[in-house]
Amino acid sequence: FFSVDFIDFTMPTPSPATLTASKEIAQKFVDFINASPSPYHAVQSCVKRLEEKGYKRLSEKKSWASELKPSGKYFFTRNNSSLIAFSVGGKFQASNGIKILGAHTDSPNFMIKPASSCGKLGFQQVSVAPYGGGLWHTWFDRDLTVAGRLVTKKDNQLTTQLVHVPRPILFVPNLCIHLQSATEREAFKLNKENHICPLLCTSFMNQLNGVKNVPQPASDVDKPNQVPVEQRHQPALLKLLAEQASCKVEDITEFDLYVCCTQPAVLGGIYEEFVHAPRIDNLSSSYCALEALLASDEKSLETDTQTRVIALFDHEEVGSDSTSGAGCNHIESLLRRLVSGFGGAADSYETAVANSFMISSDSAHLIHPCYPEKHHELHRPAAQMGPVLKFNSNQRYATSGVSAGIVRLLAQNADIPLQEFAVRSDMPCGSTIGPILSTRSGIRTVDIGLPQLAMHSVRETCGTLDLLYLKDLMSAFLDEYQNVVVEDGE
Fold this sequence. Notes:
Blueprint: H1 16-34, H2 39-52, E1 56-57, E2 73-78, E3 82-88, E4 98-104, E5 109-120, E6 123-131, E7 144-154, E8 157-164, H3 182-187, E9 199-202, H4 203-208, H5 229-232, H6 235-245, E10 252-261, E11 266-268, E12 274-277, H7 280-300, E13 307-313, H8 330-341, H9 348-354, E14 357-361, E15 364-365, E16 388-391, H10 401-413, E17 419-422, H11 433-441, E18 444-449, E19 451-453, E20 460-463, H12 464-480
Parallel strand pairs: 1-2, 4-13, 4-14, 14-18, 15-19, 16-17
Antiparallel strand pairs: 2-3, 3-13, 5-6, 5-10, 6-9, 7-8, 7-10, 11-12, 12-20, 16-18, 19-20
Helix pairs in contact: 1-12, 2-7, 7-12
């Protein structure tokens, strides 16, 4: 065991104005999380803010040549679960490059399977599949619901609409202590297929309400070419979804639905210095990036020589390999359109790449007071002490000495505290969108993060001051990066 006293908590005391600002941003972040139970809702929340600030929606299906202007503010979405927003500097030229804040909109949870209707022993259940790598034991005995999007049909036309059932409709009960041996309790071996199949209702209550219980699957001989949605999912659930979406059950063709906890995000601790919430990883970075972009637009857009970008991707928790994940062509597509729209030369794209910089922001591991040995003794991020620079010798993070030095300079000039994290050499290291984006684009990148506890739990915790510091660091990057000079021989 290392002594937790090793951590040096000495730093400039935040002013009363800083403490007030941290409480304000934390409360707004709480509201953002509560309005964003799925990646689709998170993007919708961001779009609302962007449109309030005068951002114009662009379509990837159309040319942007006549749209892009100096000081212009734009955004586009893909799959309604990823979002790119960008504001063009007033003095931008084609080869000047872009500065990017990258994050992701998804979090570990469960998705309802394509055919989910099941049940036994008097219970009606919903079959789910794990999404990403979660602390699945934390989902037991929680008040759960569903959120996501429906695909509906009308007059041979498909449309999508978001849905969120605001009340508890599902739960995964633990096995009571009396039916487990001491060895079983200690081991807690979880089978994600057999043990996590949320209960929706009893068969008895279904019958009382005139709702059919789980239908028997058709035989191979009688099975139609396509099994209708009413036979693939619980009728009671479909009825509720149709009511939420103001449509008919038979109009529902497909859906992408996530299981989520109904317990709202809140400020906590005796001084309300913490945010207790689901999906802090990584809606915290998405929110701070959004607010940093909007704040920086008001301060420095007219004089900026570059284009500032926030890139919020889906599917980070499952590897980023999708049309809306960090492995897609979002950044390349955006940069090529900018270069073309501003009359770039034949090699302006390559020049723009070399002049660009990216901050990949994802959650970092805050030191746990009960498990200090899980951190290296010199790399123990503390609460309320600022964002974390993330390093890994095996390139699990994209940070280099130069990219870290740039962030340190920006933080120093803005009076923002920074911390460092590198995983113990005898432990595996997670990764982020940073290495994926830097590899695909060739853009110099640094990985940073908001320190938090209980990462990938159904409920996580971060500090209010750290939220403010992260947003302020992102703002400093967007405001000042073009003024940073790097002499590295390239």
